[in-house]
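Intended use. Records like the one below are meant for learning the mapping from a protein sequence to its folded structure. Do not use them to infer anything beyond what is encoded.
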Amino acid sequence: MEGLDSFVAVGDSFTEGMDDPAPDGTYVGWADRLAAMISARQRGFRYANLAIRGKMLQEIVDEQVPLAASLKPKLVTLCGGGNDILVPGSDADALAEVYEIAVADLRAAGAEVLIFTGFDPKHTPLLRSLRGKIAIYNAHLWSVAQRYHCKVVDLWSMTVLHDRRAWSADRLHLSPEGHRRVALRAAEVLGFEPDEAWNTPWPPLVGEDWVTQRRHDLKWAREHVVPWIGRQLRGESMGDGLAPKRPELLPVCD
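Structure written out for the chain above:
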């Protein structure tokens, strides 16, 4: 992308960077990694990250999109709706309408918008039942991208992320290596030539027997899914009380 001198990332935990920990206790994530790649190639580059874990799509549109538009960046990355999709009874068609409003506002402000589709949960127990809803939502996102002339990072087609090493223990957030591969893919979509390929095959993985896999599945459900359901029932979010980690457009420091 020519003249990419400023980039604002908006969204939820995926864009904030969970679970890609930094030494200072914050998270790095694909967006920070992408910003570092661009900064190494573009003089005067500035970057902001407004994403906060747990945010629903309407919250992103209400709280983050206006601020992103006011910063007048060259590029805004937009990924949202994943937390909404997890809620029973949520409507992918209605979510897509909200998403389109955000894209329209950002494009009207003069920003290029990079859209991210949802992941394919085919290999994740309990979540694979959401494949149909995510596929419908993704189809809408592709249509929005066409209408507003946006580039798309198609996370659904990134089969390299089907490996469990791409995910943290909660199976909802990427591992550091998963974030790195998404950053490489995003850089490629933007027209950069990354030093590494995002789809490099993983080293061979020692398989587990069926009983061990089911034991791990039950442990995951007990430690991660049940607490998430509890937060939803109580109307709580992991992001309650948190501020964006990088609210201003600033140079990327090494």
